[in-house]
Amino acid sequence: MGGTKLLFQDDSYLREFEARVVRVVEGGVVLDQTAFNPTGGGLVSDTGYLVSGDERYAVKEVRKDRETGEVVHYLDRTGGLGEGMVVRGVIDWERRYRIMRMHTGLHVLIAVMNTRYGALVTGNQVRPDRSRVDVNLEKPDIEVVRSAFEEANRILAEGRPVKIYYLEREKALQIPGIVKLAKAMPPDLKILRIVEIEGVDIQADGGPHVRNTREVGKLEFLKLENKGRNNRRIYFTLSE
């Protein structure tokens, strides 16, 4: 049983696509390919809709089965859909683009905090409205965090290119600084998808990103919380 082809990994700007229904499952459908980014890696899933003939089906959530690699699109209903049917998928682009901007901005912020303070990520959640990142920062100094945001926004405004490419796992793990997670390594895959923000950051990452840091705009720091020994939670949003 093959996995679903993830079209967004090669083109994060793909808003519409055609796919074939592999099968109908409880509450949704599995497609042979998709531009919908599933929940995972701290990112909420895309939403949007599928079109079949005159029928439109709302995509409420998208999840990937780690065992099979198949992506399930959970719909408002499944009546009228069947195996082998061709559907057109349409992404809620405004929502997706904000997630992309948040995601790329987060990578820059993490890179700044890692370079300056050696901070590693212990958790994160990227949403279109408000996001958060947990880091193992020893001192909960709000001025340290504000300074990191200032530096991240300076870098974002420089318009650094964001590159997507693939490397063999062994070669990727030889790159200094590619692992910025405190308790996890990149997924156990032979080929890793690499996201490189030129001159700033390089990470194994499976989610959608913008092509240039200038698209992010500015990150706005919202709140700092102490979540235990050496663990700080930082909330932020987009200021525009």
What general outline do the C-alpha atoms trace?
elongated
Low-confidence stretches: none
CATH homology superfamily of the largest domain: Threonyl-trna Synthetase, Chain A, domain 2
Strand order within the widest sheet?
2-3-7-6-5-8
Based on the coordinates given, report the CATH architecture of the largest domain. 2-Layer Sandwich
Mean pLDDT: 92
Number of domains: 2
Summed up, the helix count is 3
Measured distance between first and last alpha carbons:
44 Å
Strand content: 35-45%
Major sheet: size, sense and barrel closure? 6 strands, antiparallel, barrel
Q: Radius of gyration, rounded?
A: 19 Å
How many runs of DSSP E, i.e. beta strands?
15
Key features of this structure:
six-stranded antiparallel β-barrel; Threonyl-tRNA Synthetase, Chain A, domain 2; four-stranded antiparallel beta sheet; 240 residues; 2 domains; 3 helices; alpha+beta; Elongation Factor Tu (Ef-tu), domain 3; elongated
